[in-house]
Amino acid sequence: MKLDCERADPLLSAYLDGELAREEAKALAEHLTHCAECGGEVQELEKTKTLLSREWKPAMPDDLAARIRDSLAVAERSSSVRGPWKAAAGLALAAGLAVVIYMNSSPPQPVPIGVFLAEHRHALSGSPLGRRGVWSFPPVSSESAQG
Amino acid sequence: MSDQELFDRLLKEHRDRVYRFALRLTGHWDQAAELTQEAFVRAFRSLDRYDRARPFESWVYTILHNVYINGLTRYEAKFGRSLDAEKEEGTVWEPTAPAAENPDRTAEREELRGVVQEALGRLPVPFRAPLILCDMEGLSYEEIGAALMCPVNTVRTRIHRARRMFRSAMAPYLKEDKIL
Q: Chain B partners of A47 at a C-beta cutoff of 8 Å?
């Protein structure tokens, strides 16, 4: 396997990082023995790599680690609280569905408006609000009471 | 081992490297802290989906990188302004760290750190991320591919291009022969 500069160039960084397959590395090494331009490029890339690798390596601040612990604890608590509430919500939904199914299976008979109003007037007549007239109804004629 | 014990152990083992990745990726102290927190919390909340054959750190890198990519718009809206504008307020990356960490640091060295971070920040994220993991954290191409969810050949190409971009971004300093 013989390399020219065009084929060698994309391999230079991987060569530097020791990431080439043995055959590629061997071919590139051979190319570098007689190509000053590619050799110079490898040196430049190596300087870049060295600069970055020797850069300062800050550690995670302790207060951030504590914040992460806290936020995870909060997340766990909220998920454990969510469990019983989920069960309760499921029961409520089931009960609601049962009521809807029951109501649909026996639809209420229509009540004449006169009867409806008369029932309410009767129910409210004993209450303080009814006596004060706040919830009073106009008199219902016997005709409208018949529907 | 309880979940809390497992969490403490994994956090202790991986906290610094994950934090540094976030710091280099964002170039912003606050954003790095938020991103690291988000990544660890997400990782622990979905431990049941974690493939135990895979290094935990690689998995957290993946989550962190995805959160960063997906949330870039949200983060920019929150932290919003240009690097230079924020730098004036001292909220963005500054080479100066708490003195206790590096008491012997020279002013020149501090300046270099800021310059390096600025140069990194000019690289598009798909090139910045693998370069950080390779040159600053020493991961292999395969490990980087696993962390960033891309093929090894893509990692190879991006690292090569990223080094050249980084060198161009550092050119004004290189010309002064201060650094390399």
A: 180
